[in-house]
Hints:
mainly beta; four-stranded mixed sheet; Immunoglobulin-like
Amino acid sequence: ISNRSPDLVDQPDTIVAEAEYLTFILVAADPDGDSISYSSPDLPAGAILESLTGVFEWTPTYQQGGLHTITFVATDYGTPALADTEHTDITVTNVNQAPDLFDQADTTVAEEEYLTFTLVADDPDGDSVAYSSPDLPTGATLGEATGVFEWTPTGLQSGQYTVTFIASDFGVPALADTEQTDITVTDAVGVNDGDEELRIPRSRYLAQNRPNPFNSSTTIQYGLVAPTCVKLAIYDIRGALVRRLARGELPAGHHRATWDGCDNRGRRVGSGIYFCRLEAGDFTETRRMVILR
């Protein structure tokens, strides 16, 4: 008797969501009672098909949305070996992923000093992102579409503020990511120096540069409570000195330095993360800076 081919039962088309586990069992019958092995020439990446049992398993990733037409083959062990083939459509539906709101470094600012920074979020699905906060300090603003935070604390707003920032996408369902940032507002007091009144912070500080991230130049503010020998410098991510901004004794008060994005030789540095470090006596503080060319 000549060998007869097996009969592979049609596997119904299937719908599964991204990141959802899918499994089913292929079934074939051989009229000669031969054993059967299962295979597929076009399994999606990450899918498994057991050759002896016909068990199919797959958890599609977030990058595998769409239609996948899979060919299944049932082959017997007769002589000659014969096979039957079926095609199954598996549709992977999109699942919304939450945006990733980058951490905003804690910041120190003096009373009546302008503070601004820009929130940055990445959405893996490419959705637009809206920024919000349920607990903005009085007088502060946050751009819903831009993520730009702006605030000039008044003379009555010294203290620490823990601000919650939220990045929400426009997917279905809408998802969000949340980060918290501490903003310390230092209390400035008046000190008479001849005919000029200087505003002296009550504590030493190094404020976050603004703008940050920046392209061409950025301003760095820091404060001293007494005349102090200071070192203010920029370092790269490896800890190598990039630019020295201030060195020597400075009077008490608020001071500002501008970095033009160049090294000590006047060469423009590339995009990336840099660190501004202030050494003032026994006080040391470092802020992270980002250049986007």
